Amino acid sequence: MLLSPADLDPTQPLTADVCIVGAGAAGISIARSLANTSLRVLLLEGGGEQPSERSQELYRGEMATVYRKGKWGKEDRNYLMRSRLRYFGGTTNHWNGWCRPLEPVEFSERAWVPHGGWPISRDDLAPWYRKATDVVQIPPFDPEEGYGRPRGRRMVCLADSPDIITRLFHWSPPTRFGSQYRQELVDAPNVRVLLEANALRAHATPERQHVTHLDVQLEDGPRLTVRASRFVFACGGIENARLMLLSELGSDAVGRYFMDHPHLRYAGQIVVGDELGVKGLTDLYFAARREGGQPTRTLGVFGTSAAFQATHRTLGFSAQLRSRRKEELNAVGEAVVAAQTVVRDLGRPKPQTWTPYSGLVMARGEQAPNPDSRVTLGDDTDRLGLRRVRLDWQVTEADARSLRTSMEALAHELGRVGIGRLRIRLKRDGLPELRGGDHHIGTTRMSAGPTNGVVDANCRVHGIDNLWIAGSSVFSTSGFANPTLTITALALRLADHLRREAP
Question: pTM score, two decimals?
């Protein structure tokens, strides 16, 4: 049921068994999983069904750090507003659709990654990853290797390399959770959806061990009180922390360990000699095809193996090759192409003549969890009277070193097997010119105890018996993959927990 503010009595509290705050990938996934059960579910969304500047402005805040320089500087100052959307469906409304699970090693404790490790394993999440693929409308990931195009050309995999591996992303259509699943939620007899309902703060008992109610301000309407047996904050990686801080709930870890994926748009230049060009050489883009009855596109990237990361103390990494067919090569590039031997793994005879091509390498990296990289509350307030966010996203030299070391390994392997030559465009010291992936991760992270985290293995806030948090803010580490698939998998797992633990 879609509630109308006109039908609400502000003198009477709204009640539910489960109140979910936020209708993005996490909130909608939980509400769908609890639909058509005996639980009374209330789903609150601060925005409306369509975007509005008035609602989006509530996401404005202060950036303590800026990494984009020159023409990107203005965009970076606007990071808090441009990187997320405040209406039904949340940030899935501008999501590109990249899907991949986190790697098993990224769940484990790594001696060279301070504050790393999850209290759950990849195996614990595996069944929920499989369910999440249906939600985001992609085929399963198994088996990963050996995908080919209908024409029979194969993706270049450095099969005998101990360092460089190929990993696949599936592209969701992309699934817009708000439009895709709206009617299903409206039709569910036990689910009520209330839009333009701004959560102000949660109130708890004096011992801060139980949430009693939530203050909600309707746009152009009254203030309401929401009472529920259980609350789930699913507002996104930044707003989850903000709501916790405004409510003075949780430990000192709230807001800490903020992570994004540093993106290097032009990390290097690759030159090859093949009439297919870089795009055809790598075969990393695949034509649309059907798999398991679903149309899908798949993208391959180069990454580093778990063994390489342990030996060289690096983090997760991926590199995507982009064709620049029309770029003219200089004398060095021409010489490199002329020196190439046979192109590996294409299953084609060596051509009589070599045509030079150049391509870009776009790299992305994992960040190590850092307690000083954090979301706090600033001094300015918004029109609702709430303190705005102040974000201090810190990229460290260790993060930059990991990217450089990984790029060097990729360059070595591409040259070793005779595919091409990679010119790395990264400084040896200091931070490169980078941007974020607009992935807000880690501010209410999962941990075994409250010292270095906010929620437990079931996403319940440490020390509070009826408050859970959903979304990428609970990730203990970021990995290198885009977060939406893992957000959805964790949300489905949490919904199952809430359903099984219902009184």
Answer: 0.90
Looking up tokens 């790393």 gives 116
DSSP 454: S
Q: Which residues are 322's β-sheet partners?
A: 360
Q: What is the pLDDT of residue 73?
A: 44
CA distance 67 to 77: 9
Domain ranges across the chain? 1-137+174-260+441-503, 141-171+262-365+396-433
Residues 6+ apart with CB under 8 A from 18: 34, 39, 40, 41, 42, 228, 229, 230, 231, 232, 498
Omega before 351 within 30 of 0, i.e. cis: no
Tokens of 292: 């398991």
Nearest CA to 419 out of 364, 353, 339, 361 is that of 339
Residue tagged 């776009």 (tokens) = 362
Angstrom distance (rounded) from CA 203 to CA 225: 10
Q: Of the candidates 42, 26, 183, which has an alpha carbon nearest to the alpha carbon of residue 91? A: 26
Q: Give the integer Cα–Cα distance in Å for 26 and 22.
A: 8
- Spatial separation of the C-alpha atoms in residues 434 and 367, rounded to whole Å: 13
Q: Backbone phi, then psi, for 173, in 5-degree steps?
A: -50, -35
The superfamily CATH assigns to domain 1-137+174-260+441-503 is: FAD/NAD(P)-binding domain (3.50.50.60)
> Which tokens go with 465?
């018996």
pLDDT digits over 316-372, tens only?
A: 999 987 765 444 555 545 544 444 433 333 344 444 555 556 778 889 999 999 999
Q: Give the model confidence (pLDDT) of 12-52 as tens digits.
A: 999 999 999 999 999 999 999 999 999 999 999 999 999 99
The total number of residues shown for the chain amounts to 503
